[in-house]
Design a protein that fits this description.
The protein has 150 residues and is an all-alpha fold. The chain has seven helices and no strands.
Length: 150
């Protein structure tokens, strides 16, 4: 096989590509959680704490990294007019299971302050479109979340 390419990036290239993919997915999750939390016009302290906790526990990162992810998203939202496309491009790479997990995290953030506002519901709907979820996937994820919370 000497001299032939496997079609995969070598060593550092593969590592940096994987790191970029992980960073893009982390950005996607943080952005969607922020979008939902801000759906009612403001982000409560309870919602902020819940987002940080969810990012840390589900993505297996530190609380400082969670806060950093949310801060990066807030800064990008102000500067990036093409953010929705970037998020959709990343969401396409998620499995159906991963999309349901992100959706459940969004529902969790919306429920954190025990007030479900119409704006949060609209934000969840928009975020599910960014994720590319079908109505069946949304129904199943909502049902699973209700069962887990109940």
């Amino acid at each position: 096989m000497r001299g032939q390419s496997s079609g995969y990036p070598a060593g550092d290239q593969r590592d940096s590509a994987q790191q970029a993919d992980v960073a893009a997915r982390r950005f996607l999750v943080a952005a969607l959680l922020l979008f939902v939390a801000k759906g009612d016009g403001n982000i409560s302290d309870v919602e902020s704490a819940r987002m940080i906790d969810l990012l840390a526990s589900r993505l297996k990162i530190s609380y400082a990294e969670s806060l950093d992810s949310l801060t990066r998203v807030l800064n990008a939202l102000q500067d990036d007019g093409d953010i929705a496309r970037r998020l959709r491009d990343t969401a396409i790479k998620l499995t159906s299971r991963q999309k349901r997990e992100v959706f459940a995290m969004m529902l969790d953030v919306a429920a954190a302050d025990e007030v479900r506002d119409e704006g949060e519901t609209e934000a969840i709907d928009m975020a599910s479109r960014i994720l590319g979820m079908s109505p069946g996937e949304i129904s199943a994820a909502t049902r699973d979340f209700a069962q887990a919370a109940g």
